[in-house]
Predict the structure.
Amino acid sequence: MRYTVAITALLGVAALGGGAFAQTEINVLRVSTNDEQKAYYEEIAEAFEAQHKDVNVTFEYIANEAYKSKLPTLLQSNARPDIFYSWGGETLVDQAEAGFLQPISSLLPDGFAETIPEAGLKAYSVDGSLYGLPLYATEVVFWTNTELTDEAGIDLDAIKTWDDFLGAVKTLKDADITPIIVGGQDKWPLHFYWSYLALREGGKDIIAQAMAGEDGGFENAAFVAAGEDFKQLVDLEPFQPGFMGTTYETSSGMFADGAGAFYLMGDWDYLPMRERSTSGKGLPDEQLAIVNFPAISSPVAEGGDAATLGGINGWAVTHSAEPAAVEFLAFMLSAENQRKGARQQLFIPIVKGTDDALDNPFYARVSKDISNSSYHQIFLDQFLGASVGATVNDISADLAQGVISPEEAAAMVQEAWSFR
Amino acid sequence: MATAAASRQLSASERLRRSIGNGRVSAVLILLPPALILFTLFVILPLGESGYYSFFNWNGYGSPTDFVGLENYQRIAGHSIFHKAIGNTVKIVAISLLIQMPLAMVMALLIYRKTPTNALFRLVFFLPYILAEVAAGLIWSFVFDGNYGVTASIARSMGVESFFILADRDWAFVAVMTVIVWKYFGFHMMIYIAALQSVPEDLIEAGRIEGAKRLQIVRYVQLPHIKPAIIVSAFFAIIGALQVFDVIIPLTNGGPSNQTHTIVTYLYTYGLTRLNIGFGSAVGVILFIAAITVAVFYQRVFMKGDKP
């Protein structure tokens, strides 16, 4: 009994002592990532805590799919994070409209917003209010194994149009080389084709138009044409055998093992694909090239050739977060920290002028692509929200197996969009 | 007469008083609430809630406001993938009843006697059932892998082109069903073994003396004796088929292009991962009604004379 009293007293004192510092807790929730990036955040958190003695920053990680399904519940509970990882798009709009996010423009340090490119701010704004900030941008490109394309005698610089690309695929087929590696089981690697083709066929604003319900919405001729273009490719049987049973991770390792010539994937796979290869080293830089997604010679509507597809991933701030959380967010995205991330090859920084820290030629190339892009379209499976996005993935996989027509594909997306 | 009625009337309040006295009511008061509260909190309430949500078009954020009536149910009824999922579930029921259970029975008849070798076989056949579903799914996805898996080596050694059964729209579900049979036949086998061991030895002995052959003994002595066990095992097979989920997710994740969904993976894919909570709730309600119907019907028809 006496012990219990003593312990309770001790605990009480300890609690009082702890309370005297009046700690502000900032909880950051991120989709799980590699150890290098975790260390990078840890370092930033410590640096911030050193400047602000009364603040404690904690990073937490949840695996990708679990993160997406847990987040809605988490946001409604009291255990919601202050800052969480986001892909922008409709999901962010839903979260903002449900009142889970807070506008942060007024809380940011003076002049901070000007360091972020317009497209980045737009990706994290809903109805003109800024609810978060972008961390990095990614672009989807054709990673190319030059040893294989050289063997087949393909001039990569000559691939300008979709027909050129189809020609290259045929040449590879004739040379008995698997033209394209794709992780079909996960479906989203296939949705890159349909999305890019839709952008090329319909112009850079086609998605916004479809979302607004103009010109037949997602049943617009451009989306049907995109399906037809994709079908042309599929008819050549360009993918590795059994591609519908291949996951993204497996496909990434296969490409790095030299199993195929082209691989349509984001720049982020540069390091992971090496780690997933059998040797652990993957293809050497000399054997790797980037080819941009080709243009369409006579598109349904002009203006889509310079558009890029990719992500603008970043952070959103919840409504219960303290102002210190926004301060930390700005600190995390300072030019200095962005340069550091770029130097460590973690990502392509988004803050203006920080891409000079990119030593890696592939990252530098992608960074240049994004800044030259007429419109950077966020992945459709994120941009259109979970439900419509998954439908886009579904129809892409169905088209790749030739089991639905381009018209049916477009109609299915429109149907999903109207019942959102 | 009058006294009898009076005593009966008396006995009502008397009974109550006595049962309080002998602790029955207090036992009920103490023992019932925990179970009742848990059951209400975690079964009845969520059930009612999903019934409520199923009338809304709701993405899980905030509270449901977009009332759509029966539209979710209409969409499910007209969804080709849902039809596919129902078809697949029926296929699993059929395969469980027609292949898995007979297989389990044959195995059980072969190894039900208590000998050391039989114990070893029992262990081997029961092992898949103990294995976690996700682990089993992953293991088989490696077996079926046409690039690096067992399938690949077999194809290579036979000099034929490797095949990718999990990537094939027509054959993927056959692979899934193979895994399900492999995974659960051991469970049914164990039920039969336990039942077979309780068949009196002298009955079998008597049959043998009467000149019955091995198969005749099985047909006329053993099977009739273990009928209750067969009925229970069929019940588990049907209810289990309605719930198949965790084998499929690592194996095919419902693919290729949604050809291998069961009702539960359909619910998960279209309700949870796509954040159509209202839609998913409606699927849940349908699944619940299906399970309840099967259970009640089965109890009525097959387990009627079951009472000892």
Summary: Residues 10-20 of chain A have pLDDT under 50 and may be disordered. The beta strands of chain A are 24-31, 55-62, 83-86, 125-126, 129-130, 132-145, 262-266, 288-291, 308-317, 376-378. The domain at 11-138+311-372 of chain A is CATH 3.40.190.10 (D-Maltodextrin-Binding Protein; domain 2).
